[in-house]
Design goal:
Layout lengths: L1 E4 L18 E7 L5 H14 L5 E6 L1 H12 L5 H9 L7 E6 L1 E2 L2 E2 L6 H19 L4 E6 L5 H14 L5 E8 L1 H4 L13 E3 L8 E3 L4 E6 L5 H5 L1 H7 L5 H9 L6 E5 L4 E4 L2 E4 L2 H15 L4 E2 L7 H11 L12 H11 L11 H21 L5 H5 L1 E3 L6 E4 L6 E5 L20 H12 L1
Parallel strand pairs: 2-3, 2-7, 3-4, 7-8, 12-18
Antiparallel strand pairs: 1-4, 5-6, 8-11, 9-10, 12-13, 13-14, 15-17, 16-17
Helix pairs in contact: 1-3, 4-5, 10-11, 10-13
């Protein structure tokens, strides 16, 4: 869920020396339960550098978003507007967008386990990619808020996506009593007395004694070092883990070759053998993906003939040749390999569960082959959404797919560049072109 505030104050004339082509000044923050870092960073930028944000993006958890909404925007507090009235120097109040990282189960409540940490990482990468995809912003990113991992992830994302005009900093507030005080958001023009809330006797604090400065954090801009290959990679909506791994490969995305006749997968120098039933199901999902569709387990009856064809190709046998495969063997395939006849597949829970077991077996083989590498996740048949029956390869991180071996080599009139029965025209073109390469 996102909160936006687009209310602006009247614009003042542009400062001397600026042009209409000036990049939009954008403050990007990650926050936890202390949204004060937003106004503290704005204070340091305005007072020490005369840098005034035109837009603010805040990324947090659901709880953190609620705190930021209440403290910065709610009329009873409105700390952003209060700060801007004192230090905005006539510039329009910046537009602000407050977001909670969202996963499959909705907005992220907190970072409490590896899954929620990965969700936050992906949200940060997505936000930084979105803000840096065009060269029209000058981003100042603050790593001061939220859990320590959030600051690290933001800094790392800026290193991968950041451009020459972008900056990274941490805000420093002293004495430390101000840093932890829930009512201190910036150093007001008129001094105020706050009181510490620890101990039986609160200690008075004069805001005139507060000091707020920025520690600039130099960072390596990877997109500059990797050149054109990085720009192509960074334009794709990859997860954080996948992006880090692809950067290690110099920005080259993985290419997956599915050899049905050989019953093997080939990717990044590794060959992974699959059982014929695993290959048949994997190749069927890939065929759907090459058409821009997802494989629907609920509609498996419509794919039964194709699944059977792929199975026998992976076995090295020709379904259209009775000397290779007779009717009894075909029935044993239906009842033995996938446990069901063609007619009963769609509604039989046992059949669906068995196909899920096949997918699990494929996943285990890929994890074993690519131990510790995120590329395995890009090759695994994954549910398009949690709990449904649609599957794709790798989800949003799908690899480049080459589907080959769709007919048996060494047979009269047969060639691995030619598709077998019922292959869509789009696949025939893709396969022929891919094999020719």
């Amino acid at each position: 869920m996102t909160t936006q505030n687009t209310q602006t104050q009247p614009a003042s004339p542009a400062p001397a020396g600026t042009t209409n082509k000036q990049k939009k000044r954008t403050l990007l923050c990650v926050t936890g339960l202390s949204p004060q870092i937003v106004t503290e960073t704005l204070y340091a930028l305005a007072v020490h550098e005369h840098w005034y944000a035109e837009e603010i993006h805040i990324l947090s958890t659901q709880k953190g978003k609620q705190h930021a909404d209440n403290e910065l925007l709610h009329p009873d507090r409105a700390m952003l507007a209060r700060f801007w009235r004192e230090y905005g120097n006539g510039h329009p109040l910046p537009k602000i967008r407050i977001e909670a990282a969202a996963g499959l189960d909705g907005d992220l409540l907190d970072i409490t386990d590896p899954d929620s940490s990965a969700t936050m990482a992906d949200a940060i990468v997505t936000k930084v990619r979105e803000l840096t995809k065009n060269d029209d912003r000058a981003i100042h990113a603050s790593i001061a808020g939220g859990r320590k991992s959030m600051g690290f992830l933001l800094g790392y994302a800026m290193s991968m996506y950041g451009q020459v005009q972008d900056r990274l900093s941490h805000v420093l507030v002293t004495p430390t009593e101000f840093e932890s005080h829930t009512d201190f958001f910036y150093k007001p023009l008129a001094s105020q007395i706050l009181h510490t809330r620890d101990g039986k006797t609160p200690t008075p604090l004069n805001t005139d004694d507060a000091n707020i400065v920025l520690a600039e954090l130099p960072f390596v801009r990877m997109r500059t070092l990797l050149g054109k290959s990085a720009n192509k990679l960074l334009a794709r909506p990859l997860s954080f883990a996948a992006l880090v791994e692809e950067m290690q490969y110099g920005g080259c995305e993985p290419q997956l070759t599915i050899d049905v006749a050989g019953s093997t997968l080939n990717c990044r120098g590794k060959t992974i053998p699959l059982a014929p039933k695993e290959m048949a199901l994997y190749a069927l999902i890939a065929e759907y993906q090459l058409q821009g569709k997802s494989f629907n387990l609920e509609d498996i009856t419509h794919d039964w003939s194709r699944l059977e064809e792929l199975y026998w190709i992976a076995k090295g046998r020709d379904i259209n040749n009775r000397n290779d495969v007779d009717a009894a063997e075909r029935q044993r395939f239906a009842n033995g390999e996938f446990w069901l006849s063609k007619a009963g597949m769609a509604d039989d829970k046992k059949g669906k569960d068995n196909i899920r077991v096949v997918i699990t077996d494929i996943r285990d083989k890929l994890h074993n082959a690519f131990a510790g590498q995120c590329v395995a996740l890009r090759l695994i048949p994954a549910q398009a959404k949690r709990g449904n029956c649609r599957y794709t390869l790798g989800g949003k991180d799908a690899p480049q797919i080459i589907l080959t071996g769709l007919s048996l080599p060494g047979r009269a009139g047969s060639d691995t560049t030619q598709p077998v029965l019922n292959q869509p025209a789009s696949l025939r073109q893709h396969t022929a072109a891919s094999t020719a390469e």
